[in-house]
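Action item from last week, closing it out:
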Amino acid sequence: MQHSRLSMRVFRCGTFAMAFLTLAAAMFGCAAAHAGAVDLSIKQADFPGDDAVILKWEQYWTIKTDGTVQRRDHKWVKLFNVRPIDRYGDPRLAFVNEQEELIIHKAQTTTADGTVLPVPDYSFNIAAPDEIVGWPEYAAWRDQIVSFSGIEADCVLELDYEVVTPAGVLPWLEGDVRLNDEYPIVERLVSVTVPTEGPFHYQIDRDPGAQFGKTSTVVGWGPATTYAWKMQDLAGARAEHHAPVWQMQCPRLRFTTCADLETWERATAGRVNQAGAGNGTIKEFAEATVEGEPDAAERVRLLAKKIHDSFNFVSDAKAMHGLSCRPAADVLQANYGNRLESAALLLAAVRSLGIDASAMVGVPSAAWDKSDEVVPIASGIDAVVVADVEDGPMYVHPQHGVFMNPGSWGRHWLIGRDAAGSLVTNYIHARGEKKPSDLQIAGKITIDKDGKASGDMRIRATGAFYVPKRLETAGAQKSQVTGTVGHVLSGLDVTSHSVAKLSEKVFKATASVASADALETYGGRHMLKLGDGPAFLGSIPLPLGASERRSDVWIGGRLNEQVDLLIELPEEWQAVIVPESLEPITGRWGRAVQTVEIDGKNVHFHREITIDRERVSAAEFAGLREAVNKLKATRSLVLAVGK
């Protein structure tokens, strides 16, 4: 059946599919994959609490000797209710029109009574991908929308489609495959077929007990080897707020036909270095931006700021298809581009001013590590410019600006070449990753006989509790001080402040605070509220709302907060209600404690909380959540004073 208006072919089973299914049968002793091999009778009682279950999910990749890539995805999903309809009822299949071929082998619904409803012709519709719509360079991208019919409780949606990418588009075959899903999976198959004589590397992380098979055969385009992983009964893992990215916590398969890191670096950083050649237009742009600034480092900063402020960054992975990187002059004229092209533009501009510079490729540490057996997956990379200035190498991200190590663009590997041309891999630490982040707040507050409060506070912060590049203006510094004080004292204004030190290592400031009027009264007593709980919640928020959690909580690094306040009362006044003291609360996550002591007319308030892990398991987080909520409770924060 031909659907010319959709630029796709629809058929039940082809030679290519049968070849894979024969290989699968040989490796695992199972029948060829088809709907009859899937158990459609599974009930929600088998998966209590889940809205859907993936009965079977098969994914196949192949790369021919000429570089043609074929990717096939076949999935059966049973919906127990209509809540997952947005994800499964109207899936979008992305492909590049007039370059790639999208083939839908099967799209149908099996209703609860067994009726089979193929997706009708009018329910296949083409749309532009939301992520890159409007940019001419990516105008060929299409989303094939498949709108299933007959969706009801206990229906099964089956979708089998294939994308064929012609030779010369992709530099190699690669994949970064999550093996589990938000919903449980009964059966899972991943298969990769490559030329037998070519390179192939793979790595499986957090192996879910996959059964591995390897088969060699001769197909129409030559000797081929198929690697396959079969899994069963994979538990669902729903995404939760503040959880680590799936690459850090889910079973994962990575594979590539890229030979080694040297080859990878030449094809990625090499493209940026080549595209980063200047011309008269680039030089004119750069000179107009720096306006005669003599200092090389400042010229680089001005160029980075200009590109940050005016360039349109297209960050979606689709824009990286085939490692596309246009010449810098074309990118400047268009004023938009992907993650490689923005770096190429910055690189060309820096070079045009006579500053030696080169490109390095940045890879998130969650996606790749230097010790990995495979090279990074190209779709998730970034590029930065390394400028050689008087004070040494200057690292600049075209979107995030100049960064240090540790710095705001941390948890990335940088891969490139040194001055001698040798391959180098440098790790950029995040602030608070290498050393614990500390926040110390101390001060003295005096309440006069009219009920007004005033005093001075001292703040010292390190690591993740501040970002130096965001505190370059007086207004930003004031906001930092005001926000920190506000987490410790409610109802008092910062009347003045001064910054004693601001460096990459530490931020120190003092603040004078005062209440505009007398403190609020209740029952004839003046009330001083000591903030809203741990001050670190302003910088490192926690998902405190949900009482139940399945996934880990990402903290990002070890941290410690200490608050010490001396509250002085007028003569003959006393503390009638004091914040509750909490005995030390400990767990594998760390420790929390709060003490309140009264010494005559002085009230000493001390609060300390330490989190010793960069990620806290769901079970451990329950204890941390309880401790934080106790510190946030009104009874832990209110001081009532009077005669």
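Closing note: The CA atoms of residues 282 and 476 lie 33 Å apart.
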